[in-house]
Design brief:
It holds the Pfam family Peptidase_S9. GO terms for molecular function: serine-type endopeptidase activity. Keywords: Hydrolase, Periplasm, Protease, Serine protease, Signal. This protein is an alpha+beta fold. The chain has 3 domains: 101-345, Methylamine Dehydrogenase, Chain H (7 Propeller), CATH 2.130.10; 346-437; 445-706, 3-Layer(aba) Sandwich (Rossmann fold), CATH 3.40.50.1820. Helices cover 18% and strands 33% of the residues. It is built from 13 helices and 40 strands. The protein has an 8-stranded mixed sheet, with helices on both faces. The chain has a 7-stranded antiparallel sheet with strand order 10-11-12-13-14-15-16, with no helix packed on it. Helix 7 (532-547) packs across helix 8. The radius of gyration is 26 Å and the shape is globular.
Length: 710
């Protein structure tokens, strides 16, 4: 098709009115179609919007891509213009609940108390410490507000203090592509040095000599973590030593240090297998040794202790178990059970201390903490009363201590940090998130429900709403889920969510397959050739909430981001009449084309999650659910799609193509918006308040559809 410049109307206009009783009768952008043939396995498919990849590929249509995204932005801005005052009100309302001048609970490490604090009106954190006691003078290690001046986006991460407390390494990304440069700060003189090291994950690991660091390098095109380098401070980074290179493009790699500071480890892991290499942290120039060569379908993670290694593994243990091996005999033939496999308990991790171990587990969909006294073998399960909640280790850098800190939250309990005396069992609340404006948890109700999937599986649902809600089908309800990578979406508190609940909305999380809430099998049953379970579980959860009269299709909304955005694309294709609206945040919706293109960031890492479409069976199955491939000429609900031009995880062109094709084929008069942030990437804005504007837009979108304007 002949290329037409924007001035000659690249973007033609549709004539159908949209929700004229609610939204203005404005014409929506219609993107050009250009012939592009995909031919694989004998299946020939025309992809008329393939050209939208050109900004990413730096192709000839780059300018036209930006013009199209800009036109879509202008469209939603015009359609939602009358909500601007309400969105500002929502923004200020959500911001007002946040304690602007605040301070984290100090964490003690090697003679210093480390903490972060924020100031009124400031977007970023100050990273600070005090020596020996909390009444000592404050030392500001990093003032991110100051560093971020002049940047539209600024992320500082990976803060790592040298063993002698005199230096700090940190990473900076000022583009929003998660490609970090490394900086060194001398904490004695205050001098900061750009190390000249780019394309990293943003963190570094110190050897015990206080002058050697290890860092992970990324491929600048695919963003895959491929290489581990050793750098000696004061030397030319071009001479950094490559200590490990991962040849398998399906693996992620990283480097870290054991809590007892004796071992530096390189971990290489894919979805189904992993491998660890290690050296003595006192010998940075040593050659890394393989702990145990990678094994097919076996994952393992090591925890170095004083007298042994613990190994958390799924070897002959679907839900993982803990094994042990001597320090000098690390091969699998020497592994022995330390905590045997349990069919009803998922082992998720270990927090190690000199005399204690704390196990993070999951049972019946709920997170748990179990304390083991290594000297007596006595175990204690920490108990919690709410029907649905989240608990997790938090801020425990010290190895030789009898105190363990953990975080706790639920849908009605703000984030709380506790300290448990491991000897006496005494539990102390150190800090609870303060919600300004008079929040009272007694005014809200949280429940745990179970929907029945089409195959009879019970799907947990966590729900929260304001007390007094009537189950009459008239309540607006937002249903959220993720359902991929084995990531569990636990019930947590959100102060911004109060703006929904206080206006009559209920909010629910569907703990669908593809996550790991109900154990490892829950994940296995929601990936690869069973991926459709993720989508039908979510639909069944929505149908259950309608059946129980928590809501109705007229008032039911769906939300998901990234892989959860794939979920959104699938469910509006499969069951469009169930939803009044859907919010797809940075959605992964062009599954087949992305998984066929190894030049797109992270593609090869994902083969064991979605399948490799170069295999015909995987291609056919993937094509049968990929949202972009399955758009039909039929009615769709109201849809808001968000993306970022610089997104490193899900490239902008996936949602852009999806929206363009939807707009071309859908037969309804419901609205379809594409909001592209031209400055930010996958995680959105970097400031602590900026993201509230995005939430305000999403809420205003649903409120407008519900006729709520105050």
């Amino acid at each position: 098709m002949k290329k037409i410049c924007l001035s000659l109307l690249v973007i033609s206009m549709s004539t159908a009115p949209f929700q004229s009783q609610i939204f203005p009768d404005l014409k929506a952008p219609i993107a050009d179609k250009k012939q592009h043939l995909r031919n694989i396995h004998g299946d020939k498919v025309n992809d008329p919007y393939y050209w939208m990849i050109d900004f990413f590929k730096k192709g000839r249509d780059s300018t036209q891509v930006v013009d199209y995204l800009t036109a879509e932005n202008s469209y939603w801005e015009s359609m939602m213009k009358d909500t601007e005052p309400f969105r500002e009100k929502l923004f200020q309302e959500m911001k007002a609940r946040i304690k602007e001048k605040d301070e984290s609970v100090p964490v003690f490490r090697k003679g210093y108390y480390y903490y972060t604090r924020t100031e009124t009106g400031k977007q970023y954190f100050k990273y600070c410490r005090k020596k020996d006691h909390l009444s000592a003078p404050e030392e500001i290690l990093l003032d991110v507000d100051q560093l971020a001046e002049g940047h539209a986006y600024y992320s500082a991460s990976g803060f790592s203090i040298s063993p002698d407390n005199s230096k700090m390494i940190y990473g900076v990304d000022d583009v929003s592509r998660r490609q970090y440069k490394l900086f060194l700060k001398d904490l004695d003189t205050g001098k900061t040095t750009d190390l000249g090291i780019k394309n990293t994950t943003g963190s570094a690991t110190w050897a015990n000599d206080n002058k050697t660091i290890f860092y992970t390098g990324k491929n600048p095109e695919t963003l895959l973590t491929e290489k581990i380098f050793r750098h000696s401070l004061g030397t030319d980074p071009s001479k950094d030593v490559l200590v490990y290179e991962e040849k398998d493009k399906t693996n992620y790699i990283g480097v870290g240090k054991s809590k007892n500071e004796k071992v530096i480890m390189i971990v290489s892991s894919a979805t189904n297998s992993s491998e660890t290499r290690y050296i003595n942290a006192n010998e940075p120039n040593a050659t890394f040794k393989v702990f145990q060569p990678r094994m097919k379908d076996v994952l393992y993670d090591i925890t170095p202790l004083e007298d042994k290694f613990l190994i958390t593994t799924n070897k002959d243990a679907l839900n993982f178990k803990v094994m042990e091996t001597p320090l000098d005999k690390t091969g699998v033939g020497n592994w022995k059970d330390f905590m045997p496999h349990r069919k009803d308990v998922l082992m998720e991790g270990i927090s190690e201390f000199k005399n204690y171990l704390v196990f993070s587990e999951r049972q019946n969909g709920l997170s748990q903490l179990v304390i083991l006294d290594r000297r007596t073998n006595k175990r204690e399960h920490l108990k919690f009363d709410e029907p649905t909640y989240t608990v997790y280790p938090s801020g425990n850098p010290e190895y030789n201590t009898d105190y363990f800190r953990f975080g706790y939250t639920s849908m009605i309990t703000p984030s709380s940090q506790f300290e448990q005396n491991l000897q006496t069992g005494k539990r102390t609340l150190l800090k609870q998130q303060e919600i300004l404006g008079g929040y009272n948890k007694a005014n809200y109700v949280t429940e745990r429900l179970f929907a029945t999937a089409k195959d009879g599986t019970k799907i947990p649902i966590s729900i929260v709403y304001k007390k007094g809600l009537k189950k009459d089908g008239k309540n607006p309800l937002l249903l959220y889920a993720y359902g991929s990578y084995g990531s569990s979406m636990d019930a947590t508190f959100s102060s911004t969510r109060l703006s929904l609940l206080d206006r009559g909305f209920a909010f629910a999380i569907a703990h669908i397959r593809g996550g790991q809430e109900m154990g490892r099998q829950w994940y296995e049953d929601g990936k690869m050739m069973k991926k459709k379970n993720t989508f039908t579980d979510f639909i069944n959860a929505g149908e259950y909430l309608v059946k129980e009269k928590y809501t109705s299709p007229k008032h039911l909304y769906a939300q998901g981001g990234s892989a959860g955005g794939l979920l959104m694309g699938a469910i509006v294709n499969m069951k469009p009449e169930l939803w009044n609206g859907a919010i797809a945040q940075v959605p992964f919706v062009d599954v087949v084309n992305t998984m066929l293109d190894e030049s797109i960031p992270l593609t090869t890492n994902e083969y064991d999650e979605w399948g490799n479409p170069n295999n015909k069976a995987a291609y056919d199955y993937m094509k049968s659910y990929s949202p972009y491939e399955n758009i039909e000429r039929k009615n769709y609900p109201n849809i808001l799609v968000t993306t970022g031009l610089h997104d490193s995880q899900v490239q902008y062109f996936e949602p852009a193509k999806w929206v363009a094709k939807l707009r071309d084929l859908k037969t309804d008069k419901n609205v379809l918006f594409l909001k592209t942030d031209m400055k930010y990437g996958h995680g959105g804005a970097s400031g602590r308040f900026d993201y509230l504007k995005d939430i305000a837009l999403e809420y205003a979108f649903m409120f407008k559809l519900e006729g709520i304007d105050k």
